[in-house]
Design brief:
Layout (H helix, E strand, L loop, with lengths): L2 H15 L11 H4 L5 H16 L4 H11 L11 H9 L1
Helix pairs in contact: 1-4, 4-5
Length: 89
């Protein structure tokens, strides 16, 4: 992991730990890292993106995922493919 990604992750974790609400994705691994049939994955991805829309950590989460080149899961409301496209641009 790059130094930048490590810093972003540290900042993200600090922000989440210092809020009363926590992150809305906590404890919802199956939603943010869906497995199974393609239709299940599509449905979970759409639901996860909806959760991300109202998350106060969305931008920090997405920035970390892009910097770390996270290959799996929904981070900051983006899929791995969307993050790769952002990185290329």
């Amino acid at each position: 992991m790059s130094r930048r990604a490590e810093e972003l992750l540290k900042d993200l974790n600090f922000a989440i730990q210092n809020t009363d609400e926590g992150a809305p994705c906590e404890g919802r691994d199956l939603l943010f890292f869906p497995e199974g049939h393609e239709s299940i994955q599509r449905s979970a991805t759409l639901e996860a993106k909806m959760v991300c829309r109202s998350c106060p950590f969305r931008l920090a989460c997405g920035a970390y995922a892009i910097a770390a080149q996270e290959p799996y899961g929904i981070w900051g409301g983006t899929t791995p493919e969307e993050r790769r496209a952002i990185s290329r641009s």
